Fold this protein.
Amino acid sequence: MAQLDYRANLQTALFPLLAENGGDTVIITNRDATYERFVSPDPSGGPLDRGIPQIIYGHNVMPSTYGFQSVGYKVQYPAFNAAYNFDAAYLMVSVEGIRTYIGVDYTVAGTLFALQQSGTWAALGGAPSIGPANRVSVATVNGISYLCLSGLGTYTYSVNTNSLTRVTLKGLDDGNIIALATSTGYLIALTKNSVAWSATDDPLDFVPSDITGAGGGSVQEATGNLIHAQETSYGFILYTENNVVSVTYSGNATFPFNFKAITGGGGVASSDLVCVDSVNSQYAYTTKGLQQIYHTGAKTVLSYITDFVAGQVFEDFDEETNTFSISSFTHTMRKKLSLVSDRYLVLSYGMNQGQPMTHAIVLDVPLTRMGKLKITHNQVFELRNLAPEVIETPRESIALLDKDGTVRTVDFGLRAAESKGVMLLGKYSYTRSRRTTIQQVRVSNVQPENDFEILDMITEDGTTLQPAQTLYADPPKPLATVRDFYSQICGVNHTLVVKGNFNLSTLILSFTLHGVQ
């Protein structure tokens, strides 16, 4: 029988977060007229299952303009000590005007660290012992950062002495402050049920005064304890246990802020669930799911991510054994949310509370397409340039903090030796009634020196994946970026396992038809 060719779809906006949700698909679609045939849909509208083969699982892969690429990880700052448990890192400006990162270990040692100019961590002098109840927040006003340890006090940092110095917030009880923020030149202090703002000429002066402009009070619009405040260009957004409050700058020194509850906004359990790098609209994982928050309202977005993270089912693919592992549990996953470079929305998650997270869903917001990372980490944050010189580092800003203090960045280099991803593409069948044999698979944009392979997992019932079988590959040709793989594997449908270092924009399957299943 004649050989048929099919170019695979590598432009899907997203893929199932549980591979079992990837339904049976067909190449010939004329009998499945219920599906809309868009290959790169906006995930905000229309059916997510298009009925045509696509990526059904992936990790350490990111969308590119024309397809998908594997990614690796580059160590930017080495580990401090494997015995420690770095939970988070915060950008801080010292009293000398030098930027650095403050690392936080809440559990093992209760210690704060500073990233030295040499690129290594060092324990901070003058820092009290901390625990999980002593939440850390950092606010920068007039070029100096103030670090708040809830219940313990507020501090500034000196690079010259590598130490913290406690400062007094006049007019406030340090023991009641849960977090600091900044907005339009004011230092903002939160307690569980009130907001205070500093004088404009002295960020440490909170004594209420019509002359200095300092003031504050309870928040009538809040329907729960205050959790977090995040600056915008209009003022700041206040997050509580049950709702969200818009706080806009009035320009009136006597009454500088106007408060109004945001319609539709849910509450948050932690500041870890609010993106800290967005300017006007902010993303937050709230009691109503993943939401985009504006001063004028809130809307629920990316419901498929919320459904997965809240679904209490954890999936992973072992690239050594080529098998899936599925775990069910009754508790909630550990998760953190971040926005990097106003481009990558990252939801990190792990199966167990108190343990490092193992995966991260990454949404490329401008492309409206999804990738996924598999790496142990405790936080994702935007890595900023700490040197005084301006250094361009495009696509090197997604940083991951490991428990031992190692800071890695996602390496998008198309020829990076450590780049290694996994994708499952399928399920490929000609029609629902015919068996097929894949004869050849041709892929592009795979460098001759790259470690790359393709396997085939067939089904005999349309659903149950059989053990993976490796396709035979032609030896890589010098300077050629096209690779050919061959097989004579027959099945009801086929799922291709793509592994290694790749930048796929074209994948062409050649197959022949067999009898009716």
